[in-house]
Every structure is written in C-alpha cells, then in structure tokens.
Amino acid sequence: MERMPVFVKVEEYDDVLNLVKTIRRRLDEAKETLGKIHDLKNEEDHQIELWQNALGEIEKKVDFIDHSLNEPEHL
Questions:
Q1: Nearest-CA neighbor of 6 among 18, 61, 16?
Q2: Which of 2, 17, 58, 70 lies at a 20 to 30 A Cα distance from 35?
Q3: CB of 8 within 8 A of CB of 16?
Q4: How many CA atoms lie within 13 A of 61 on its CB side?
C-alpha cells in the first residue's frame, strides 16, 4: 500500500494529538486490566489444581476405608 501524506487542519491538530494520547492511555489501561485478569486466572487454575489433588486424596482414603470394611480379613 502506497503511503500518502495526511493533511490535518491546524485547528484540529491539537484535537488529534489529544485523541491519540487518550487512545494510548486507554490501551495501557486495557493491557493492565488484561494482565490482572491473566494473574487471577493463573491463581484460579492453581487453586483448582489444589482442590483436585485434595479430592483425589480424600477419594483414596474413602476407597481404602470402604475396602477395609468390606474385606477386613485382608488386613
């Protein structure tokens, strides 16, 4: 695509610069928010993994107790 010069009226130049600054600020805010969401997701994933491990351990213990109660002579 060929680059062409862009002409802006002098009266509107400051408005364009302010608009670009506002857009950049909003982009920075969006990046920051996205980073926070990413951190929260990672923490959530970690907590879910901990809960899954805890449930797995509880399930093993319940299975052992159930097996022990149903077949006590194998102990």
A1: 16
A2: 17
A3: yes
A4: 6
Kindly state the tokens that stand for 41. 């997701």
Instruction: Determine the residue type at 52.
Output: Q
Identify the band that residue 73 occupies on the pLDDT scale cut at 50, 70 and 90. Answer: low
Residue 63 confidence (pLDDT) above 80: yes
Predicted TM-score (pTM) of the model is 0.63
The tokens for 44 are 């959530």
Query: What's the one-letter identity of residue 22?
Result: T
Tell me how far CA of residue 7 lies from CA of 13, 19, 24, 58, in angstroms: 10, 16, 21, 71
Residue identified by tokens 């194998």 is 74
